[in-house]
């Protein structure tokens, strides 16, 4: 019935530990005191009729190192032997308020704080679980383009009306900063054929190629069938 069908599976899980963690993204040590919004990992599994396949994980993290990616791939391979683990892809939204993997950046944390090695093990377990669940949840689906709107925030580099720019530090300029928030997004979205709801896959703006599933419930997107 569906000669060119694409199988699609989605799932999401928190990657926020119960313990305080050292937050990654600044030059100084910052120990978390509370959770304002949970960090999550969102998994998208895709398989075509010719068995081409991929699992894409989008993480609320600053970045991720290749050795952690390889550990997730190896763990997924053990649970899905038929899956080519090199096709597990991991991207990060580059938040500056997420747990830290790297143990050589800051002093040893207090005993009640999760260590970078501890968080690494925690993340690998959660990411593997989400990848396997998305793969198992595959159903026949489709992909469609869309135009949506979401507030993406200010760029940290301010450009002033006198033509100069500055990223960090104090300034004495009286000129008015130029710029603002980017709100228009051209996206691709995916859904199962049994569902009427699309989930955004990614923004195709050249400067903002990022997974946008996390904004799906916050902002309307207008999908083209």
Instruction: Give the end-to-end Cα distance, rounded to a whole number of Å.
Output: 19 Å
The number of distinct structural domains comes to 2
Total count of strands: 13
Rg calculated over all Cα atoms: 20 Å
Largest sheet: 8 strands, mixed
Please write the string of helix (H) and strand (E) elements.
EEEEHEEHEEEEEEE
- Average pLDDT, to the nearest integer? 77
Helix content: 10-25%
Strand content: 25-35%
Catalogue the unreliable spans: 202-225
What gross morphology would you assign?
A: globular
Q: With helices defined by DSSP (H or I, 4 residues minimum), what is the helix count?
A: 2
Structural class: alpha+beta
Defining traits:
single chain, 225 residues, alpha+beta, 8-stranded mixed β-sheet, 3-stranded antiparallel β-sheet, 13 strands, 30% strand, globular
Written description of the protein model:
This protein is an alpha+beta fold. The protein has 2 domains: 6-137, no CATH class; 143-223, no CATH class. It contains 2 helices and 13 strands; from the N terminus they run ββββαββαβββββββ. The strands form 3 sheets. Strands 1, 3, 4, 5, 7, 11, 12 and 13 form an 8-stranded mixed sheet that branches. Strands 9-8-10 form a 3-stranded antiparallel sheet, with no helix packed on it. Strands 2-6 form a two-stranded antiparallel sheet. Helix 1 crosses helix 2 (116-136). Mean pLDDT is 77; it is low at 202-225.
